[in-house]
Amino acid sequence: MSLGRSSLVISLPKNWLQLTELNKGDVVSFAIQRDRSLVVYPGSRKKSDNKEITIHVAQNDEQALISRRIVGCYLNGYSGIRLISQNIFSMQQRKWIRNIAGVLYMRIMESDAKSIYMQALIDESKASLEQAIERMRLISLSMCEDAFTALKNNNIDLAKSVFSMVADADHFTFFILRLLRNAAQNSVLANELHVDPLDCMDHETLVDSMEYAAHSAADLARQITLQGEEEKIPNEICELLSTAGALAVDMYTKAINTFFSKDDQTAVEILKNQQKIEALDADIALQAFTIKQKNARLARMICSIRENIKKIADSAADIAKISINRAFKASH
After folding, report:
1. Of 102, 219, 220, whose CA–CA distance to 168 is shortest?
2. What is the pLDDT of residues 114-147, one digit of tens each?
3. At the N or C end, where does the chain have fewer CB atoms within 10 A?
């Protein structure tokens, strides 16, 4: 139908209005696709779908199995998770369930000998993907920087602080991945988060890499806390580790920036810096295995720190690669 001199008006199908529970006066939005088609999105859903699921737990189920099942349900958008024991939950199983509930920011609402019900506390429709990723960036970067400061200054307390931040990094990782998985299946949520399916894939790679860097920094910090008076890393090796660590953190910082700026030139430079990391790693390895004291435990500690530096650099490289791909993403 014509409206005025230049506008055309179309009606929305009744079945679609009923499906989306839209009424007169409600807000909708639209997006132009690559093929020039126009997609109409309903506004925010008036009520969120509280999906629930039941998980049956055997008496001999171990921590890894129970935890991964709960995480899998959480990532797939379930707001309520009920765990039913075939007999009764052991004290150890209850401890595992409470720990993973804490990491996921889920609250245990009901609990008895044979049943535990937990519920997610955060409403995805009110969440900000941008803010969550920024907080994850700050946490992971802080962990990396503080880990190498602790290494350089042999600061055991700072190293312990870095190691204690793993739970915070895990929380944001799981929350962001839950958002992205839901957005990939829910066009309304994707529109509210300003992402399309390809963006979801790219952001998932980013979050996985940030989590990998955070865990590498935490493991590196844990190695520092294992040093004793007779097992202190020699100064010359510590300097090489600090130099390699500073380069890895610089790569990581720049890589995250390139993800959003889509600066492919800087991304390529980051990939080239991997060769510098490899060269420094070879020097560290040579000196680690020629320590005069021939201390095997100290050599293992140095090798572990080396490996974690390479992991942080690898995280930066993975982010840089996806940044290059994003730089050439076709616009809508």
Report:
1. 102
2. 999 999 987 776 788 889 999 999 999 999 999 9
3. N
Count CB neighbours of 311 within 10 A. Answer: 18
271-276 mean pLDDT? 94
- CA triplet 79, 80, 83: central angle to 5 degrees? 145
CB 243 within 8 A of CB 148: no
**Residue pointed to by tokens 């020097």:** 283
Enumerate domains of the chain plus CATH numbers.
2-42 (no CATH), 52-121 (3.30.110.10), 125-327 (1.20.58.220)
User: Which amino acid does the sequence have at 111?
Assistant: S
CA atoms within 13 A on the CB side of 319: 32
What proportion of the chain, given as a percentage, has pLDDT over 70? 93
Q: What is the pTM for the complete model shown?
A: 0.81
The helix (H) or strand (E) run that includes residue 181 is helix 166-185
Helix (H) or strand (E) holding 64: helix 63-75
Structure tokens at 319: 């982010």
Residues 234, 183: Cα–Cα separation, whole Å: 50
**What pairs with residue 118 in β-bridges?**
81, 108
- In angstroms, the CA 78 to CA 181 distance is 12
- Token output for 188: 């309304």
Query: Which of 131, 169, 144 shows the shortest CA–CA distance to 254?
Result: 144
